[in-house]
């Protein structure tokens, strides 16, 4: 997660529902910059918006972080266990990288 978006989520978790202006004052950022980041956070399901205020709940954030970590582990971490020096491994990094020998 981007540093600014992380700071916004932490601010909302600590301070409760807040407007773009309130968040911007705390982060020393323009309301338009904060609004852009809040839109991305809302689209990702990390913050909610109602009555001109944004909020975040620890449950939503924890669920999102857990799903992100699980996806990262599955798609990036190498398989566990010993591998033969002559055994060819296919890494799940996408078609542009193809196959890689170990």
Shape: elongated
Name of the top-level CATH class of the domain at 3-59: Mainly Alpha
Query: CATH homologous superfamily of the domain at 3-59, by name?
Result: Winged helix-like DNA-binding domain superfamily/Winged helix DNA-binding domain
- What structural class results from the helix and strand content? mainly alpha
Number of DSSP strand runs? 4
Helix content: 40-55%
CATH fold-level topology of the domain at 3-59: Arc Repressor Mutant, subunit A
- Across the major sheet, the strand order is 1-2
Tally the helices.
Answer: 4
Radius of gyration: 20 Å
Brief write-up:
The chain is mostly helical. It is built from four helices and four strands. A hairpin with a 2-residue loop joins strand 1 and strand 2.
Protein traits:
52% helix, 4 strands, two-stranded antiparallel ribbon, single chain, 102 residues, disordered C terminus, elongated, mainly alpha, Arc Repressor Mutant, subunit A
Description:
- It contains 4 helices and 4 strands.
- Helix content is 52%, strand content 10%.
- It has a domain at 3-59: Arc Repressor Mutant, subunit A, CATH 1.10.10.10.
- The longest helix is centred in the middle third of the chain and has 19 residues, at 58-76.
- The chain is elongated, with a radius of gyration of 20 Å.
- α1 (3-15) crosses α3 (31-43) and α2 crosses α3.
- The model is unreliable at 84-102 (pLDDT under 50).
- The strands form 2 sheets. The protein has a two-stranded antiparallel sheet. A two-stranded antiparallel ribbon has the order 3-4.
- With 102 residues, it is mainly alpha-helical.
- It starts with a helix and ends with a strand.
